[in-house]
Design goal:
about 500 residues; alpha/beta; Rossmann fold
């Protein structure tokens, strides 16, 4: 069976119970906040990843140009020599190092034209002077083709200039689309916040887009408009606001002396997958320069950082799509047998969709094999499945115990991209501990959603899966999930993935 047929099966068979209605608790935002949140926002591109990709492209392009010129001229006359290839690769690597030393691998530099071209040509010329010097002292000057060397120099300049011209156009296009902006909100609608916003707007080549300010105060210290930025609401509104639009940075314009107030706000906001910083531009207490991170020239103190960003995010995406596709291909025969067993056991569709919490508290549809009788389906999981639950079919009991009912979530990983292979398990939106929703029962519950949820996770392989009938069980899940988020690595994901089958066999007493 080909993957495309599996996808057709997904689209055709996945259904939601008739009449099922999702219930959400949404905080009401101010008209000003709704106006900002309703604006169309594109996904952001990481400047760190962009610069890294440009480095790779520079190295590959220069290596290909040098090798092509060598094969076209020198190799045809003198025969193939690996020393030339080694010299070309070394020169390409040296060029990247020199470009880095010339400080041209920055998005702000990519936007310009003259500055990056002059620095790049100077660095490329230095690489050739360095190569000529090494050849002279190694007494290899006579063995190097002067025509090839001069052709490589000129062709390298031409190709690099053409590449940078295309990159400049691309960067400007992305900047116009807002993909390079760090969408920022300020906490503090007073004179301190006003001073901070003015300072940030004075920075050259700043990538900050200030959306507005939030403040709990209603007295005369709280302005409705702060240095041209509108007041969007109270601090409690920030979480709902961040769910509706992309937020990259929360910046506190409060003095460090307001410790109690800051801690109260951080306790609410740390569940968001954003960078949170404390502005230090007005503080009299000064730390060492290395203690600060800077927004232009404005010093800030890092409080929380968004997890799994930049190259880590790229690596996790590649891991999910690559390993996920292989896992899906390997699982298709088993999934076919499970689908046949479900069809023969009880009437109704083979797959169903269940509403779950996704990244940043978004609602997503998660695909599963149907394990309940179709007329008793519970897409919002309002009623927890318990031991000897009469709603579970015969086949459903087996696939739930063995977690085979989770296999269709590979479709979410490979095709939809709203799940990872490894991450905090996506709980149902109406998941409850007795009469309390999970987020009401556990403080900081939504911090699990700072990363994309997964099919398996650190909590699951440590035995915290299945029925949630005590406060300890949901607390332990959250603790293990937060540990995973703080300690994530590709090797950690691989370890969890390899440990999952063993864990399913040995720790399934809570799975019904």
């Amino acid at each position: 069976m080909e993957p495309i047929n599996a996808r057709s099966m997904l689209d055709a068979a996945a259904t939601t119970a008739p009449g099922a209605r999702q219930v959400e608790r949404r905080r009401r935002l101010t008209p000003a906040a709704l106006e900002v949140a309703s604006q169309k926002v594109r996904a952001a591109y990481s400047p760190i990843v962009i610069a890294g990709v440009v480095r790779i492209v520079d190295f590959v392009v220069l290596s290909v140009v040098g090798t092509a010129l060598y094969l076209a001229y020198v190799a045809r006359i003198d025969g193939f020599n690996w020393q030339y290839i080694a010299a070309i690769v070394a020169m390409a690597a040296a060029a990247v190092v020199c470009f880095q030393a010339s400080d041209i691998y920055q998005v702000q530099i990519f936007r310009g034209q003259l500055r990056q071209m002059t620095r790049m040509i100077s660095a490329w010329a230095f690489v050739f002077l360095l190569f000529i010097g090494v050849s002279f002292f190694a007494k290899l000057g006579g063995a190097v083709s002067r025509l090839w060397l001069s052709s490589f120099f000129v062709a390298g300049i031409v190709i690099l200039m053409a590449e940078r011209a295309a990159l400049r156009a691309l960067i400007r296009r992305w900047a116009h689309q807002g993909r390079l902006d760090r969408r920022t909100i300020i906490v503090g609608a007073d004179s301190t916040g006003e001073h901070l916003i003015r300072e940030l707007r004075l920075q050259e080549d700043s990538d900050l887009q200030i959306l507005g300010v939030f403040d709990d105060r209603n007295d005369k210290r709280s302005m409705n408009t702060v240095a041209g930025a509108p007041k969007l609401g109270k601090v409690d509104d920030i979480i709902e606001f961040a769910r509706r639009t992309r937020i990259d940075l929360v910046l506190f314009a409060l003095p460090i002396s307001a410790e109690t107030r800051i801690l109260e706000m951080l306790k609410k906001l740390w569940v968001l997958p954003v960078d949170i910083r404390l502005s230090a531009h007005t503080n009299k207490l000064r730390f060492r320069p290395r203690s600060y991170s800077y927004l232009g020239k404005v010093p800030t103190l890092d409080v929380f950082e968004a997890p799994i960003t930049d190259w880590d995010l790229v690596m996790k995406w590649l891991f999910d799509r690559g390993v996920g596709a292989l896992a899906l291909l390997a699982a298709l025969p088993v999934m076919g047998l499970v689908a046949l067993a479900i069809k023969l056991d009880s009437p109704g569709p083979v797959l169903f969709r269940q509403k779950r919490f996704g990244f940043n508290n978004e609602r997503i549809d998660v695909f599963k094999f149907r394990s309940l009788f179709h007329d008793q389906a519970d897409p919002l999981a309002k009623t927890v499945v318990t031991k000897d639950d009469k709603r579970v079919t015969r086949v459903g009991r087996f696939i739930r115990k063995s977690s085979l009912d989770e296999l269709p979530q590979l479709f979410n990983v490979v095709f939809k991209g709203n799940l990872s292979l490894v991450g905090p398990r996506p709980h149902a939106v109406q998941g409850k501990l007795q009469t309390q929703l999970f987020d009401e029962a556990v403080d900081g519950y939504f911090a699990r959603h700072r990363v994309k949820p997964g099919i398996t996770g650190w909590a699951q392989i440590n035995g915290w899966r299945g029925e949630v009938d005590s406060e300890e069980k949901i607390q332990k899940r959250v603790e293990f999930d937060l540990y995973y988020i703080e300690n994530w690595s590709v090797l950690f994901d691989l370890y969890i993935l390899l440990k999952t089958p063993i864990s399913l066999m040995m720790k399934n007493e809570n799975a019904y």
